[in-house]
Design goal:
InterPro entries: BTB/POZ_dom, SKP1/BTB/POZ_sf. This is BTB domain-containing protein. It comes from Amanita muscaria (strain Koide BX008). This protein is an alpha/beta fold. Among the domains are: 129 residues, Potassium Channel Kv1.1, Chain A (2-Layer Sandwich); 104 residues, no CATH class. The chain is built from 18 helices and six strands. A four-stranded mixed sheet has the order 1-3-2-4. Strands 5-6 form a two-stranded antiparallel ribbon. A hairpin with a 4-residue loop joins β5 and β6. The chain is elongated and about 90 Å long. The termini are far apart.
């Protein structure tokens, strides 16, 4: 007895009676035009020109379609929509309210089959929207925007900016890396880095994404936020007690607010490798501060300082200022590994002093700049503190 042949359904939108090639995606048949699929130097161009030999030509009938593996029906339909869409439809999707899922599917399938211009168009539209969100968040940080609609969610799984969920940002990040779209990659990393400061859940998500996709800049920010918001005693590996937010009064004042998760909220478990990186980062940052607090950042004295001032006195004034602030009560109240917090506090104190320090005017400006550079260098290289220890 012959086994029954599988039955496939024809797609209601992209099965054209005058189509010239039939594709099977999952259990759905698509009959489209070869001329469209052969454009843009796509992989279909070569497929259509390959010799078939004595075997029946695939794609000529429903019984012998071209089988496409790894795609979903929805993804392939979205891709075909981009090939067949009218100019007015393209313009609507290209607006700031375009469907990001649609655009992501288009870019993903276009990348797979080497439709470079389609891929670039879809990602550029996504970037235009994501970059607006990035600019809004920069406005929140600088105090330009104060509307709650610009704030990131501190609980839950979505970022209410333009109602884009965290999962969507995660997918876009993977896609931008696969397609090597650097501007989009940088913008999404910036948004996810901002989200780590508002939610411990987001910090954990960013930490896992950074490890999975090996994104150093995101790894440094995410690990630092977990390091600062969670007690070392509560870092766990699977099978141990739940992770909770640090409960000490000093840190709860700086971390928790009305929107923060409760101390009893269950949070994702960390892996042994992540725990090792956190401990390594804590040790390295602590040791870094122990060295830094004794020796202030160095700068080149202005030429006028050597000519008209006592350069040694200028240097001593800078060293005395640094050591005094490094042992101030505010600095001592910060966690030993909070290097950035300590440097930023000293930077603010130095700016507040104005002309009271016994330093040449040009040297004061150069010392201020070297403080800013020191902070920037640590921000740019945070991931190095949390790199895997050498075995």
């Amino acid at each position: 007895m012959q086994p029954d042949k599988p039955t496939y359904k024809r797609d209601d939108s992209f099965y054209f009676e005058d189509g010239s090639c039939i594709f099977l995606v999952e259990n759905t048949l698509f009959n489209v035009h070869r001329s469209l699929l052969s454009r843009d130097s796509s992989s279909f161009t070569n497929m259509f020109t390959l010799p078939q030999g004595d075997k029946p030509v695939q794609g000529k009938s429903d019984d012998n379609p071209v089988l496409l593996l790894g795609d979903t029906v929805t993804e392939f339909k979205h891709f075909l929509w981009a090939l067949y869409a009218l100019p007015s439809e393209i313009a609507a999707v290209s607006s700031q309210f375009g469907d990001l899922t649609l655009l992501s599917d288009i870019a993903q399938v276009a990348n797979k089959y080497f439709f470079k211009s389609v891929e670039t168009w879809a990602l550029d539209v996504v970037y235009a929207r994501v970059s607006r969100i990035q600019q809004r968040l920069k406005g929140v940080d600088s105090g330009t925007h104060t509307s709650p609609s610009f704030q990131l969610s501190k609980t839950g799984s979505s970022i209410p900016v333009d109602d884009i969920p965290m999962d969507q940002f995660t997918r876009l990040l993977r896609l931008s890396q696969i397609c090597v779209h650097e501007p989009l990659l940088d913008a999404i990393v910036s948004i996810l880095s901002h989200s780590t400061k508002t939610s411990l859940q987001h910090a954990f998500r960013a930490m896992n994404i950074a490890d999975e996709l090996d994104i150093p800049s995101l790894r440094g920010v995410a690990y630092l936020e977990v390091l600062q918001k969670c007690s070392i005693d509560n870092w766990i590996v699977p099978g141990f007690k739940q992770l909770t937010i640090m409960t000490s009064q000093r840190l709860s004042q700086s971390v928790q607010d009305k929107d923060s998760p409760s101390p009893d909220e269950e949070l994702p478990e960390i892996t042994p490798a992540q725990r090792s990186r956190l401990l390594t980062g804590y040790y390295r940052m602590s040791r870094f501060w122990e060295r830094t607090r004794l020796t202030p950042p160095e700068f080149d004295h202005a030429l006028a300082c050597g000519a008209t001032w006592h350069q040694r006195g200028c240097t001593l004034s800078w060293v005395e200022f640094w050591r005094e602030k490094a042992r101030s009560e505010t600095i001592l109240n910060l966690d030993v590994a909070d290097v950035l917090g300590k440097l930023r506090h000293i930077e603010k104190e130095y700016a507040r002093l104005g002309n009271t320090t016994y330093m040449h005017h040009d040297c004061r400006l150069m010392a201020k700049e070297c403080l800013a550079v020191a902070v920037k260098n640590i921000e740019d290289n945070l991931y190095e503190f949390f790199s895997d220890p050498l075995l």
